[in-house]
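Lecture 7, part B: from sequences to assemblies.

Below are the input chains for today's worked example.
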Amino acid sequence: MKNLFILIALSTASTGAIAASAFSDAEDAVSYRQHSFQLIRHNFADLGDMVKGQVPFDAERAKRRAAALVSLTTLPWEAFEVPGADKAESSAKADIWQNLQDFKQKAEKFQADAAALNTAAASGTMEQIKPAVMAFAKNCKACHDKYKAD
Ligand code: HEC
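Predicted structure of the full complex, as structure tokens:
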């Protein structure tokens, strides 16, 4: 009986325009990718502040932030490929869909740098974390300058 309820709940949750998908429509996909970027911002900001000495260095928290970024940096991209997600209102520039290969390459480099940051954070030393945070940070501007409207 319990399984039946779960099935009913699941089928109600996926009655949107894009059936059997995580996104009910293009606006929902935009919301997903924007929220993903906000979570990236929060987790990154704390690491940035530790590197700048604006908050005390906490090796355990740095590890958690870096591990979160490994997952979070995988999230936004699929939401750029939902049908209509290029036309929905957002800060994403049309250039993304004209240069999808380049955009994807930037997204992949970002994820690789998150993995490197995670390895550096595992060391527990600021000496290793600092350059990894700086390298990771470069990805934001490199992509935003080209593909994000202000
Ligand atoms: C490969 C490209 C790319 C990279 C790398 C990237 N971003 Fe973005 N970011 C975007 C795009 C495109 C948007 C616009 C998304 C939209 O409006 O649908 C965006 C939007 C945002 C937003 C606004 C979200 C909202 O609520 O509208 C924040 C905050 C953000 N990015 C933070 C970051 C930070 C911090 C980094 C680096 C640690 C980063 N991004 C790296 C492409 C990127």
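Note for the exam: Residues 22-84+94-147 form a domain with the Four Helix Bundle (Hemerythrin (Met), subunit A) fold (CATH 1.20.120.10). Keep this in mind when comparing with the next example.
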